[in-house]
Amino acid sequence: MLYTFSLLFCLFIAIWYDILGQSKYKNTWYHILLFCFIAISALQFQVGTDIPHYMKEYKQFDVDNFKFSDLFEGGEDRRQPGWILLMYVCRFFTEEFVFFKIIQAMFLNIAVFSFFRRETKNVFLCIFLYALISYLVLNFNLLRQSFALGFTLYGYSYLRNKQIAKYLLCVFAAFMFHNSAFVLIFPLLVEFLKFNRITLWMTLSLIIIFIYFLSTVDIGILLADFFKSGYVNSNISSIGLGYMQSEDLGVRDEFSIFSIRRLCIAFVLIYFLFKSKDMPLAYMGFAYLAINILVSIFPIIWRFRIYFDISYLIILAAFIKDFEIPKLKCFSKWMSIVLICIISYFFLCDYLIPYEGSSMRYIDQYYPYHSVFDPIIEYKRLNYF
């Protein structure tokens, strides 16, 4: 009920302000939604599949015997220095995990909300899409990567303003929380390109050639040789080889380039490209599409997509707001509402369809919601996920 009510309320606010163009109390509702997003995240109790493990890790953190060298050893779980330092600081003050979770919830959601406010006029549409698509996994599962993402979003704004040094500082901070942040070097390379449609189509052509190449080789052998080559960090190499052996996240034999969802993403991006002059954002969107394609053969790659999801939400919100059929311009607002319903349907199906051979659904990682004021352990969820 909490998720349904929150999502419907975000939808109403998005339509009221971004589709219908109302403005009264707009700033007030922005801060109310931000507070609600933080509170729901911060006050959870064992919601999501990773939270119980993080709670155990936090409780067992040895504050008394902590040494500076521990920052760079990582322990059995290969943690990054930024994460270890934050755990130490929080654990120094209190054993209550909720204190740590409040810091994470505030940092992540303030970063996301402020990014929307800086980068788009469709703030409330983006907030609704964030609630629909990314909120649950970022707030209740990917805690380490959520810190990396927060620094990334501040970094993107610096990059757009040509503040390269500040962007690199944000990338460094992101990497201090999650190894996957090394992918943030690529947006910096794009920054040195001449932003126009020619360079973008050239990039797309190279991506298509690269994908065709992948479809002609044995990806498993290729990746195994890459991780064993010695050209990558030993920590990253061991993680990559471990995921390759995973039944759910390892390399798959099939390679699906086309699907209804990917074709829809491509259509949204192409429409945005011709309607907007924002080439840097378009590059982010096509990176999102390329990673979506690669996920079909190596599912764990979706971790890298996290850094492009929020940028794609801005593109998707612009598409919802601006899409129109020439002969039906008078119904443009209704068209926006129809698009919201269609998009919502696709993502809600992902949440509600049961896993193969089970009655459990994706949403059951996060449902039912329990707070620190109602600390109930869902053993069925723990045992299955």
Give a structural overview.
The protein is built from 18 helices and no strands. By secondary structure, the chain is mainly alpha-helical. The radius of gyration is 21 Å and the shape is globular. 31% of the residues are buried.
> What is the CA–CA distance across the termini?
22 Å
Computed structural class: mainly alpha
* Strand and helix order: HHHHHHHHHHHHHHHHHH
Q: Low-confidence spans: pLDDT under 50, at least 5 residues?
A: none
Q: Any idea what the shape is? A: globular
Overall mean confidence score, pLDDT: 83
Radius of gyration: 21 Å
Nutshell version of this structure?
It is built from 18 helices and no strands. The chain has helices at 2-19, 26-42, 51-59, 70-73, 81-93, 97-119, 123-140, 143-160, 164-175, 185-191, 197-215, 219-228, 234-244, 260-275, 279-295, 302-322, 332-352, 379-384.
Helix-strand blueprint:
Blueprint: H1 2-19, H2 26-42, H3 51-59, H4 70-73, H5 81-93, H6 97-119, H7 123-140, H8 143-160, H9 164-175, H10 185-191, H11 197-215, H12 219-228, H13 234-244, H14 260-275, H15 279-295, H16 302-322, H17 332-352, H18 379-384
Helix pairs in contact: 1-7, 2-6, 6-7, 6-8, 7-16, 8-9, 11-15, 12-13, 14-15, 14-16, 15-16
List keywords for this structure.
globular, 385 residues, 0% strand, single chain, mainly alpha
